[in-house]
């Protein structure tokens, strides 16, 4: 059946995709719910969301590595069942074979396509030259830097001449300067039409990276993951991070991602704090990070109120990390977040100026008042004759409502916060929680 012009321009389409996994205790955990998106020829689209929101799972569905529980993914109008020949993927980790040379690593994809040896070598050398690794064909991965290894990963993806390139946080494992150089080089190749691909889908949790590279940004929510906003990037390339329009768009995305669902936001960044469930997923944030951010906002030049993008730049924090700490400050009522700004509450200002003993007392009060899991742990310990309970008792309870990884992160956060506040103690060797001074 012939396709219309509009259909021919569509590279990949995701329709009502749902992905769930069985829980150890029965039932299922939904990671993706009603995901819809389209990627067309000639565009770079960013999928922006928090770590653990299901972005990578969606990418693997599109790559044919995972079959969705429901819905469908279509590549050039055909359902994806297994890896598609026209789709290539670049991972966060370099995933090179250490016993193979750069040339051999790049040639691997061509072996699977049964390309004749002479043609395969020619295409591999062209891909290596394209991504700036000419001269390192005979080098082994251990002989080259992380940035160069990731370039090899890009060459391995490009050598098969895919229509669609999927990139799963490909710059996050690199240092800042190396990542910036690689981004710039790739954008130059894309703008010059030198890359043998039609479209790129970039998964990231870096807001500035998304604005720098993408034509459209799809904001992804968490628990479960779904596309909740589409933001066009109407800024000509090459883009300047200091440009007023660039900064305004970054500010807008921060604002959207920190707007609670109750206010019409995408619930992709700092969540709505309503509800009192012990199974609220908690971010893995240290008390040092909590205290450090409060002190930074309290001091000059912010004096109690800061613009989140500026704060992220000044403190060299990724948006994902900043959201996690800011979320915790809001959870404990040490700060409020509104319009992309974070403002210390009276309690937050007081915390910044008190000694450690008063800080512990303030932290304990807010922990038991606003973190239901911590209050639940304290109540269970209070009620037991020996005032002790094993870690597994609470972990199993959380795993009924979230993934094992989320349960581990949530319980570890509650334990670490409780230890700092001296609300309860934890013996790592025995995996046992207890009260230091049972009442």
Structural class: alpha/beta
Radius of gyration computed on alpha carbons: 24 Å
Strand percent estimate: 15-25%
- Terminal CA distance: 76 Å
For the biggest β-sheet, the strand order reads 6-7-8-3-9-10
Q: Report the uncertain regions.
A: 1-8, 267-275
Total number of distinct structural domains: 2
Helix content: 40-55%
Note the main sheet. Answer: 6 strands, mixed
Which CATH class of the largest domain? Alpha Beta
CATH third-tier fold name of the largest domain: Rossmann fold
Overall mean pLDDT stands at: 87
Task: Lay out the secondary structure.
Elements lengths: L4 H4 L1 E13 L5 E13 L3 E5 L6 H8 L7 E6 L2 E2 L7 E4 L11 H11 L4 H14 L15 H13 L5 E5 L7 H16 L7 E6 L2 H7 L2 E5 L6 E6 L11 H14 L29 H12 L6 E3 H7 L4 H13 L3 E4 L2 E4 L1 H8 L2 H15 L1 H12 L4 E3 H9 L4 H17 L4 E3 L4 E3 L5
Parallel strand pairs: 3-8, 3-9, 6-7, 7-8
Antiparallel strand pairs: 1-2, 1-4, 4-5, 9-10, 11-13, 12-13, 14-16, 15-16
Helix pairs in contact: 3-4, 3-5, 4-5, 7-8, 9-11, 9-12, 13-14, 15-16
Q: Can you give me a brief rundown of this structure?
A:
With 439 residues, this protein is an alpha/beta fold.
Can you walk through the features of this model?
This protein starts with a helix and ends in a 5-residue tail after the last strand. 41% of the residues are buried. It is built from 16 helices and 16 strands. The chain has a six-stranded mixed β-sheet with strand order 6-7-8-3-9-10, sandwiched between helices. By secondary structure, the protein is an alpha/beta fold.
